[in-house]
Amino acid sequence: MLKLGVVGYGYWGPNIVRNFASQAGCEVVTVCDKNPKAMAQVRSRHPGVRASDNSDDVTTSPDIDAVAIVTPVSTHYELAKRALENGKHVFVEKPFTATSAQAQELIELAERQRLTLMVDHTFLFCGAVRKIKELVDEGVLGPLYYYDSMRVNLGLFQHDVNVIWDLAPHDLSVIDHLIGLDPEGVVATGGAHLNGFADVAYITLYFPKNIIAHINVNWLSPVKVRTTLVGGQRKMLVWNDLEPAEKIKVYDKGVEAGTRQGVYDLLMSYRSGDMWAPRVDQTEALELETRYFLECVASGKTPINDGRAGLRVVRMLEAADLSLKHRRDIALSRRTRVVGAPPSVPPAPVAAAAEPARSRFVAA
Ligand SMILES: NC(=O)c1ccc[n+]([C@@H]2O[C@H](COP(=O)([O-])OP(=O)(O)OC[C@H]3O[C@@H](n4cnc5c(N)ncnc54)[C@H](O)[C@@H]3O)[C@@H](O)[C@H]2O)c1
Which of 9, 15, 17, 33 to mutate to test the pocket of ligand 1 (most atoms within 8 A of CB)? Predict the structure, then answer.
């Protein structure tokens, strides 16, 4: 019986506590939150569980074997480090840490202590992603062309990170899982409209083998959309996570480039076959993931969502942040140049004006 302590009982913490508490091999012994309202909820929902407002009661307690950290990302490193130093296995929320240096340090610490370190990449355990992984690995889609995701809704605004760090880890962990390669380049653009943190962003990742991924994340959308396209040479699929029954639709559609008979003569042949919706397991992802954590602790096996997987996601997030800043600087300086063009310049002929402007922008 693994004795578990949880730090953080805000929006996501209750899901973690409920799922660990429902596992046969686990007892949730302590839940900690510094917010008194959260503590009151713990006491009313889980009368047998000790409630505390001091994280040391979880991370250093001798009667706790493992710690789940469900607090904002800015606190993950300190809490995880303290738990690992005190010999606890750690289940930590996404994104793993605020920097890749912190992630690296925690990975080394866990390895030295021979402790399980798992990052909550929840989507790897949902039925839809497990099915997509199967289709990719079995070659049903053929060599991958692209992953294109839209993950938008109104809020919830996080106070310590931008929308990329809040929402993109889901897609980045799925992309990492499906493609299994490090990206060669990351480009991000976006805008901050309310609290100084980007709340709308567009991230493009370039992978080897000519695979491209694009993620649109947005806290300012009037509607919630969770739609992803995955395109391969043989088949393409649409994953709509808000669809209750047919979450994935696989299309036997594709395009083939025929023989080139001249520079401008590329013959395209389009294939439009059947569509099918494979059965998707509806088991709650966290139920499977928390069970998997217990299995990994018991067997000592390395989880698919270990610290290294967490680090790969943090590296992509850091690259996106860097690009976001540079892109904005570049875009603004260029925009200033265009807007600031002296009014006395006589208008150039339309065609001649369009060309240099377009090439200047592409070069940004
Ligand atoms: N895997 C998922 O699908 C998923 C979904 C939502 C959130 N999350 C992640 O879960 C984490 C928490 O997000 P949230 O939305 O629940 O945030 P939240 O702000 O709603 O809750 C965080 C809670 O942690 C408490 N807390 C913060 N620092 C603490 C400390 N040092 N000691 C004790 N309590 C502390 C706060 O009082 C708060 O109640 C984030 O990393 C977020 O990215 C993951």
Answer: 33
